[in-house]
Task: inverse folding
């Protein structure tokens, strides 16, 4: 009998807990691409190259664990400039961290899609262009993440 | 000499029992946590034996790591347990530090502990969620995976990446605490504490779940230590062993925490133990946030190799710049071993260097690899319906077992 009572109470408690969230849902879903989460400071997204700061030391290509970064040597120049292959890049950020001139920077953009595989290989010139988020350009609303004791994560317009 | 196909036939298709034993091949598929395959022999619906046929996510990580400079092995090896990526690499970093004879400064040790515990909670939530969906309890799956986002968000703010943190490097960590991190972490802890009570109501104390878990897949204490089981699966059988206590790494010797153990050793105990460990991890996180000392996050030995301007930048921004030495850092000749406690159990590294930049040999023994043998020992005698219940309770992660 005691077992039956315990089991009944257990069922009621489980159903009641579920019902509470049916009435007061606790969703953390963000409706991308209409909404876009603002990424934290120091986020490791696509990389931006600043050629004017670069001393062409090649450390970024040397440290790259995935072999994604390569030095491109122009005709008439002795030392190369870095280009990146986003087919291989793992966004570890070693290249930006080892650069003694801060010529590489990890941006907060990560949602870029490419039409062709070849487009993912960026020459130093393409690498130096500003990185833009397609979602933002399409008019996505930025939302920021707020920690909440009640709901875990809440997303509010930034 | 048997040909390869005969070996495979004899291994996979050997009859155990009479003709009535039915062989069922499960997988290769990716049902929840990674590609796996089991050969299950059934008498009616009673399991006679289970052969875990591992190797479907094998990526030769140990061999790949021998072909590149040691520092480059960190982002590579963290992919073996991507849900627990800091805990999986902290052992490697410790082994490298032993060879290089460098110690991380105190603040770095505390920050390592912080991310390790955030990872442990995320890993346990992943395991609990997967176990939930294996019992068709999709609410538990959704809740655990949703709440895991809270911890991933914290990890992302700390390290800059959601899953592949690459946070510890020889000599320290790469990022300092962001502003207001302690506040957010405390909120996350308070939220999670309340949620764990609800997990108990909807899942662990749910009579349906209890009847599927209690007394199922019992692993006896003696058997657990004989088979070399590690992690929560071992502690749920009453053996108090934890690599955080056994090996002094990060700041575990400076924070107080309990290693929860349970005596029952069944699937239910294993699930409950994970909840207890989450509570302990949250307590460690709060202690770390209170106690974390001021100071550098990168060893002086490497900081002084930076030009003065960069050194100032590191101190002002809290983001480490790597000295040029890191691009081809030579490991002194010798051997080093290190272990660390992951969410799944103890991970062990054996690093041998011949003095060059690349490790001569890098051997990893992962917790899932040690625990996979449980499928052979726990399953026989149970109904086939209990297979997913036991699988879920073991928190087996195939990519980690296969490496």
Result:
């Amino acid at each position: 009998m005691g077992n039956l009572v315990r089991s009944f109470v257990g069922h009621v408690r489980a159903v009641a807990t579920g019902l509470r969230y049916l009435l007061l849902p606790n969703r953390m879903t963000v409706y991308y691409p209409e909404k876009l989460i603002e990424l934290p400071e120091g986020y490791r997204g696509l990389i931006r190259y600043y050629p004017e700061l670069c001393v062409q030391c090649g450390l970024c290509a040397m440290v790259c664990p995935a072999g994604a970064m390569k030095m491109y040597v122009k005709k008439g120049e002795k030392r190369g400039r870095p280009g990146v292959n986003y087919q291989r890049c793992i966004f570890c950020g070693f290249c930006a961290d080892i650069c003694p001139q801060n010529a590489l920077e990890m941006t907060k953009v990560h949602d870029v899609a490419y039409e062709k595989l070849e487009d993912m290989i960026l020459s130093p010139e393409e690498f130096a262009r500003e990185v833009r988020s397609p979602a933002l350009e399409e008019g996505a609303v930025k939302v920021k993440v707020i920690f909440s004791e009640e709901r875990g994560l809440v997303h509010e317009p930034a | 000499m048997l040909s390869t196909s005969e070996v495979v036939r004899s291994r996979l298709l050997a009859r155990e029992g009479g003709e009535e034993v039915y062989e069922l091949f499960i997988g290769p598929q990716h049902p929840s946590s990674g590609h796996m395959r089991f050969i299950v022999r059934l008498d009616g619906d009673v399991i006679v034996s289970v052969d875990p046929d591992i190797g479907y996510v094998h990526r030769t990580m140990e061999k790949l790591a021998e072909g590149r400079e040691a520092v480059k092995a960190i982002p590579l090896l963290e992919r073996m347990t991507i849900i627990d990526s800091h805990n999986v690499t902290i052992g490697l970093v410790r082994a490298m530090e032993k060879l290089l004879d460098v110690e991380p400064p105190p603040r770095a040790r505390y920050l390592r502990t912080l991310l390790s515990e955030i990872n442990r909670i995320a890993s346990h939530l992943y395991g609990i969620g997967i176990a939930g969906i294996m019992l068709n309890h999709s609410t538990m799956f959704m809740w655990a995976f949703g709440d895991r986002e809270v911890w991933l968000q914290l990890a992302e703010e700390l390290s800059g990446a959601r899953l592949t943190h690459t946070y510890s490097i020889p000599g320290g960590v790469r990022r300092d605490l962001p502003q207001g991190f302690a506040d957010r972490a405390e909120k996350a802890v308070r939220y999670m504490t309340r949620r764990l009570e609800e997990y108990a109501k909807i899942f662990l104390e749910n009579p349906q779940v209890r009847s599927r878990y209690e007394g199922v897949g019992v692993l006896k204490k003696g058997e657990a230590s004989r088979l070399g089981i590690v992690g929560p699966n071992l502690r749920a059988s009453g053996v108090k062993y934890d690599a955080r206590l056994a090996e002094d790494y990060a700041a575990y010797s400076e924070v107080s925490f309990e290693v929860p153990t349970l005596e029952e050793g069944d699937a239910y105990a294993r699930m409950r133990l994970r909840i207890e460990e989450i509570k302990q991890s949250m307590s460690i996180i709060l202690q770390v946030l209170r106690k974390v000392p001021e100071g550098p996050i990168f060893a002086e030995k490497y900081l002084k190799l930076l030009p003065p301007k960069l050194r100032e930048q590191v101190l002002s921004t809290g983001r480490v710049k790597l000295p040029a030495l890191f691009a081809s850092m030579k490991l002194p000749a010798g051997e080093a071993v290190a272990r660390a406690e992951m969410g799944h159990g103890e991970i062990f590294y054996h690093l041998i260097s011949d003095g060059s930049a690349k490790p001569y040999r890098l051997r990893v023994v992962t917790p899932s690899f040690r625990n996979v043998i449980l499928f052979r020992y726990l399953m026989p005698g149970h109904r086939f319906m209990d297979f997913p219940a036991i699988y879920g309770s073991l928190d087996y992660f195939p990519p980690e077992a296969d490496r």
User: Anything to note?
Assistant: Chain A has a mean pLDDT of 89. Chain A touches chain B through 42 residues (CB under 8 Å).
